[in-house]
Amino acid sequence: MSYLGKQSTEKWQDILKEIRFLHQLNHPNTIEYKGCFLRDHTAWLVMEYCLGSASDIIEVHKRPLKEEEIAAICEGVLHGLHYLHALGRIHRDVKAGNILLTENGTVKLADFGSASTKCPANSFVGTPYWMAPEVILAMDEGQYDGKIDVWSLGITCIELAERKPPYFNMNAMSALYHIAQNDTPVLSSSDWSDIFRHFVDSCLQKNPNERPSSGKLLSHQMVTRLRSPHILVDLIQRTKTAVRELDNLNYRKMKKILMVEKFENESVVGDADVDRTIGANLKSTPKCTVQCVKADQSLDFATRDEECFTQQSYITAGSATRTKGHFNTTTKTFDHAKETSTKVHLCGRIQRKDNFTEGHLSRKIKRDNLRI
What we know:
mainly alpha, 2 domains, two-stranded antiparallel sheet
């Protein structure tokens, strides 16, 4: 928690208030305070280790909790709230995100930054969607007591059963208006038992005087009915397994993305090298000119052969070839250029031979004519 910047004095006082509050707590169902140290205008609070929150669990599984799992969590929360209320304390921010679980399945109330050391209280404090009606109306109509935590627990039951609290699709101000003015929210699905429905309805009585206390709810059938003593331990183990599978899946996805990026980078580098090779070869390739001559024109074939055919040009091109998981950049020499050069060379030799034969016959005819 940082206490630097604007209102640093107020921030520091809030930190001291929470530390004093935590230091006074000593109950199995409240988070244990270990110590505090300051560094770079930030207060670091050291708490006992917990695996995660009830909100984390439903987020991992992407589904609501079972009714008996919700009942086990509610029992731990009610024990913690009963302890706080007996001390004249109010949590004021009960929700799934502030309900932690340890390795052995113990439920822990956490995050006492909004807690009040006075009861009754009248401050507008809490998270809107879990806030009790009397907190919203407190500034106009008076004070409230620990029963606001019971309301928040009822909303938390709906959150665990439906993965979100009522009015969560609204903005905060609209949600506050509906909480204060509309009827009490209820469970939307008909699959839940009547016992669970009665427990939620009891927690969500709009009139605080009709709402049972945390101590009284500990005797509710929802809390006292038989269930496996390892219900939360089993839930934690399933969650840990799901987290490992999710981590492995995310690791494989990330590894695949990194491999694709690596291959694409290698392909770009390889293509650039090929382009430079082609450019260098084109610059170093000698020019070849083709001259067309008539049959009666004389040409020094020996000189032409030396100029045109002693220098052979080879055209190289790079082709990026994709193999299993990597790219190979190879260069190929096309035989077409060599084959064409050979054909031209042979044509030249044939043409020279024909010209030589034609000249020899012409001279012979002239000699024969002279004899005649």
